[in-house]
Amino acid sequence: MSDVAAPPAPSILEVVRRRYFSSVGNTLLTVVSLALLGTILWKVLDWAVFTAVFSTSGGPEACRGADGACWSVIGARWRLIFFGLYPYEEHWRSGLACLVVVVMTVLSCMPRFWSMKAISVIWIGGFAVFYVLMKGGVLGLVRVDEQNWGGLALTVFIFVTTVIIGMPLSLAWALLRRSELKVVSRVTAVIIDSVRSLPLVSILFTFAIVLPFVLPDWLTGDKLYRAIIGSALFFSAYQAEIIRGGFQGVPKGQEEAAKALGLGYWLRIGKILLPQAFKNALPATINQFVITFKETSLFIIIGFFEVLASGNAAYGTGDWTFAYVEVYVFIAAIYFAFVFSLSRYGAFLERRMDAGDRR
To answer: pLDDT per position in the chain (359 positions), as tens?
Structure first.
């Protein structure tokens, strides 16, 4: 073994100099890029903060002629954005229902609850509380039908219901797709590929508008639930392929060894293959969750008052029609908060699993 000591790690300043100021060309490009980014940042801050109007006392007239953003529209219309058509005096129920979903999500992210039983109890129980708060009709709560739901609560409801229905269905598709019976495997593949070949908008339109014409009255149900079933079917088709890819990442020798030990099918799947498949599929699964949350905005096309439609109503009525940019920026911030938190949690899970592998 050599006694020569390893060279010291370069300092941050040395790394910056090598990457961005190593030559005249790199230095010039770095300076121009910084100047451009600084100009853009200053323009954004000047519009959004320094010259913006925040007061709601003056109404729309306070923003007339202002150089910056008119955040007064958010202060005046935030209830409409968050709660949509939900009755004004019952807004506390819609807000509490959203808080229940946040708590449910946080509990699901804690390692101590990472078991099938605990996760099932948290999600099913949390969803039941959410639905009771939104729907009412029991425990002294005023009944509020689904056509009066709206805003952020409806967006969260669509996302959570899609995932709750779609995840078990996607697992069933994935297991059927890898079945040793050729007929079952091929029929499942045709179903999955057929759903994946269609745009989500067409599926939502079919389930919400077309199905009532071909189904008996007792089977049609509410339009919202039909659309959610269509969204869950679309989600499950993509997630099934993600899970199947996770299964393909598990060495075949492990399943063969489990068979040699006499383990039954469900023991092999539940104890050996599925945990590893979910781990392999984690990055793509988080990405699919992100896509699904953003795709809830498509429900506006079939007449639902989710958060984007509520935002349209917030600036589209009264004297706030000029403040549409501010409303869309605010809605974008809502989506960003949910999606960024979800992506960061996915990155945390990946680091945690990588650390577990190294141990």
So the answer is: 455 556 677 777 877 777 777 888 888 998 999 999 999 999 999 988 888 888 777 677 777 777 888 888 888 888 888 888 888 888 999 989 889 888 888 888 777 777 778 888 888 888 889 889 988 888 888 998 888 888 888 888 899 889 889 999 999 999 999 888 889 999 999 999 999 999 999 999 999 888 888 877 777 778 888 999 999 999 999 999 999 998 888 888 887 888 888 888 788 888 888 888 888 888 888 889 989 999 998 888 888 888 888 888 888 776 788 888 889 999 999 999 988 888 888 788 777 776 555 55
Domain parsing of the chain, residue ranges: 82-149
* Cα–Cα distance for residue pair 248/268, rounded to 1 Å: 15
Joined together, the tokens standing for residue 320 give: 């706030």
Side chain identity at residue 34, one-letter code: L
Residue with tokens 């650390």: 355
The distance from CA 6 to its chain's CA centroid, rounded to whole angstroms, is: 46
